[in-house]
Every structure is written in C-alpha cells, then in structure tokens.
Write a structure and sequence with these properties.
The chain is an alpha/beta fold. 41% of the residues lie in helices and 13% in strands. The strands form 2 sheets. Strands 5-2-1-6-7-9-8 form a 7-stranded mixed β-sheet, with helices on one face. It has a two-stranded antiparallel sheet with strand order 3-4. Strand 3 and strand 4 form a beta hairpin.
Length: 344
C-alpha cells in the first residue's frame, strides 16, 4: 500500500457518510463498544489504525468517554500488518488515551441520568471504571491518562494519528494546538476532529481556519473532519490563540474558510451557520449574533422542513437563538475552565 494513506481509504473518507464506510464489515468489538461514536466514525478510526498507521508515532485518543474510539483504534492496530517500527523507542504504548472521567452534574442540584446500551450513567459520577473495563482486552496497547487534560505535561513525542473529541472549551482547544498539533509528522499525520461539523464550539473552526496552510482537508465523516498534516507548524504560530486574541472579523474569516459547498450537505452548512452566530455572540454582542441569524429560516428552509432531520435542525436553531438571547451561551461554552466541575 506504500507509505501514505491508501487511495481507496481517501476515496471513502471524501464522500460524506459514504456507503463504503457505512457498510464496512467491522470487528464485533468495534461495532459493540459502548460510546457515542457513529458506525462510520468507528470505521474511520479502525481503518486509519489498520491501513494507514506505520508506527512512526503514537496515536492520540483525545476524549475516550466509554471507549468506542479507543477500541476502534486498538483493534485497528491489532489487525495492522504494515507497522514494523518498534514503539518502545517512544517509551510508551502506541495509544495515548485521555479522559477526565465524568460528565458535570447539574448546577441546580437535580440528578440527571443517561443510558448508553446497558450502562446507565448518573451525571457527576466517575465512569472511569466502566471505561477501564471496556478497554481491558487492549491494555497492552493503551496508556490511559485520567484527569483534566490541561494538567497533563505531554512529552515531545511524534503523533501519527490524532483523534480529538475533547475541544469543549477554548482552553482545551488551546492545549490541543500547543501539545498535539505541535507534534504531528508532516506528510504522514492524520488529524480527526470529531466536533468540527457541529453547531457549537466555534473556536475549533477558527483554529483550523487559522492553521489552514498546514493541513490538507481530506473529507468529512459525520461530524468529524479529517485532515492530513502537510508541513511542520512553527511554535510561534501555535503560541497565538486566534479565537481568544483575534478580532471579530478575523475570527469570522477563519471560521468561514471551511465552507466546501461541493462536499458539505445542507445539514452541515446549517450547523456551521449556527456555530458562526455563537462565535459572534462570544466575540461581540447578542444583537449582532441574532442579526446574523435573521435569514436563517429562509436560507436553510430545506433543512428545517426535511422529514428526517427537520425536527433536530429546528431544535438546534431555536436553542441557539434562545441561548444567545438569554446570555446562557456565555455561561455554558467558551471561557469556563474545565476544572470548574468536580466528579462525585
């Protein structure tokens, strides 16, 4: 297959929610692993670890949750026949997994529960025991780091595959940039950012717009964006935080530089429009943000009226308008420290 990513895998990734990725026959452990990742995203991570990984660096699992991403990567390494390098040179296991280990309890004191398969979770409790149980069969491949990511001192270790599902705040996104993106291997490393095509977390789009000269956009798989790192990112570039320090106009330009009409679905474009409004609310005023959404219902009428996705799109739109109007967005996203909440 050569040193680079296989042309077949690139073709599969380029087509959004492609039939090839959807219909791939995956190992049962990958399909059944507890977690929130879609089947297509599990397939993506499994194939990257199986067919692209060469052992030239570690794999980052940034935000393991219950282990679906971790298992997908680990099983891919197990089935990999191309990697010949000895990972012991890095003095660590090939997969470096990171998880804070809990979802924050409600501030009003009310209990909140959610179920993933057979696992019923109470917000505020640690789910690390469940994660450890779910990845136990791959313990020889995984170093699991539990705690607030920003407190971890990441060594200067090359990163070959970087899966990020942890950029939930500006502070965490900044950590990812300065520690993980700084150690990508030019012309080899693949970056998968799971929250990119999402109606929130606008700083992720701003960051990648700012860094666009260092990445090749490969494609979209559900809400994940897939990039190939093309050249080394200088430390002086990564030391600047474009979302925090850039002007509103600069941030909007970075955010909007990701629109690829030929490759993005109407649903994706509607979510990016909502993310753009949240960017304006966080960087400027709610009045300007709401004005940006003035024509949303007309421009995205086909999505809002869609029989399959319309209700979800309407919920996201109304939630965005409501949380910008009442100022809740400033409390929920963007600038709060990840250490604000503590597990029970």
């Amino acid at each position: 297959m050569g040193v680079g990513m296989s042309e077949m895998l690139i073709k599969e990734i380029r087509f959004r929610n492609s039939e090839d990725l959807t219909c791939r026959v995956l190992p049962p452990d990958v399909v059944n692993a507890e977690g929130m990742l879609s089947r297509e995203e599990r397939s993506l991570l499994y194939l990257l670890a199986r067919d692209h990984y060469r052992g030239d660096g570690v794999l980052i699992d940034g935000g393991s949750f219950l282990g679906s991403s971790t298992v997908s990567l680990a099983h891919g390494i197990r089935d990999n026949t191309h990697s010949q390098n000895d990972m012991s040179v890095f003095r660590c296991k090939p997969i470096q997994a990171f998880e804070i280990g809990f979802l924050p309890r409600l501030k009003n004191g009310k209990e909140k529960f959610k179920e993933w398969g057979a696992f019923k979770y109470r917000f505020g409790d640690s789910f690390i025991p469940r994660l450890e149980q779910n990845i136990e069969n791959y313990s020889d491949l995984i170093d699991l780091h539990v705690g607030d990511l920003v407190d971890f001192k990441f060594p200067a270790t090359p990163i070959e595959i970087c899966f990020i599902d942890v950029g939930k705040s500006v502070k965490l996104d900044d950590y990812v940039n300065k520690n993980f993106l700084a150690n990508l291997i030019p012309s080899k490393s693949i970056l998968v950012n799971q929250d990119f095509y999402f109606d929130r977390l606008p700083w992720i789009k701003v960051t990648m717009g700012y860094l666009k000269d260092y990445f090749e956009w490969i494609g979209q798989v559900r809400t994940s964006v897939v990039y190939k790192n093309t050249k080394k990112i200088p430390q002086e570039v990564l030391s600047y935080n474009p979302f925090r320090d850039g002007t509103l106009d600069e941030c909007i330009a970075y955010h909007d530089s990701h629109v690829f009409p030929d490759d993005q679905s109407p649903i994706t474009l509607s979510r990016l429009a909502l993310s753009r409004a949240l960017l304006i609310a966080l960087k400027s005023t709610k009045e300007l943000a709401l004005a940006d959404l003035k024509d949303f219902e007309r421009i995205h009428a086909n999505v809002l009226s869609d029989g399959k996705h319309g209700d979800d799109a309407r919920m996201r739109y109304e939630r965005t308008v409501r949380q910008i109007s009442n100022g809740m967005i400033l409390k929920q996203w963007g600038y709060y420290p990840s250490s604000e909440f503590q597990p029970a």
